[in-house]
């Protein structure tokens, strides 16, 4: 499965070849910024949106019925299960980058994990890697909200206490709801929060560039960086009662991630990205 691209022009391009678009338990996709010269609807007037399930709780069943009725159950094993090629990536080494962070998580995440992804720009490579991983649940931001990750991971762990929860979290959006770490500590939840610490609201910088702002003065720059002073996520986590650590290399991330997964209760790892 492919996600609908983030930017509207790319989303329009991805969906434009289809005459009919099935909406399974979701509304029609729209843009969430008012881009000049870009319409809010991603689908064109010639495309027909068809809703097949108004109740999100029955989406899988509805899709199964549709597949059976349309005789589209190809590429499956005799037992009816889809043929999925499991392929974990090799563990990387050396100084940490966003790509190496995603590779490390993908190589080590346990089966049946719940992955909450609010990594925004930093974790872009994780989704494609996740297709070859053992069965797991992936919860993503579905619009333009910010601050979804830490409380969503908290709720997921309360709902499924027997499953490890991994939160891929951008540092900027983490600041909006960081108090949920206290709930994780108070309830002893098995949540591992991985902070992509690039010390900036990178997505806001991208959106400013798209809006035509190519040169930033000190006031604008001050709105999109997380420096002066630098955030200390290890101390922030400890202040809420969550053990924290900081890593600069892929090897250190591997060690701290495995440690967090093997110990009960919440953990936070600050991944320092140059």
Which characteristics define this entry?
alpha/beta; 11 helices; 274 residues; 2 domains; two-stranded parallel ribbon
Can you give me a brief rundown of this structure?
By secondary structure, the chain is α/β, with parallel strands linked by helices.
**Cα shape:** globular
CATH architecture of the largest domain: 3-Layer(aba) Sandwich
> What's the number of domains?
2
CATH superfamily of the largest domain, by name, is Thiamin diphosphate (ThDP)-binding fold, Pyr/PP domains
Largest sheet: 6 strands, parallel
Report Rg.
Answer: 20 Å
Q: How do the SSEs run, as a string of H and E? A: HEEHHEHEHEHHEHHHEHE
* Euclidean distance between termini CA atoms: 31 Å
CATH class group of the largest domain: Alpha Beta
How many strand elements?
A: 8
The strand order across the widest sheet is: 4-3-5-6-8-7
Strand content: 15-25%
Secondary structure tally, helices: 11
Topology readout:
Blueprint: H1 8-15, E1 20-24, E2 48-53, H2 59-69, H3 98-108, E3 114-118, H4 126-130, E4 137-140, H5 149-159, E5 165-170, H6 171-174, H7 180-187, E6 191-197, H8 202-210, H9 218-224, H10 233-239, E7 244-247, H11 250-262, E8 267-272
Parallel strand pairs: 1-2, 3-4, 3-5, 5-6, 6-8, 7-8
Helix pairs in contact: 3-11, 5-7
Commentary on this structure:
This protein is α/β, with parallel strands linked by helices and 274 residues long. The protein is 34% helix and 16% strand. It is built from eleven helices and eight strands. It starts with 7 loop residues before the first helix and ends with a strand.
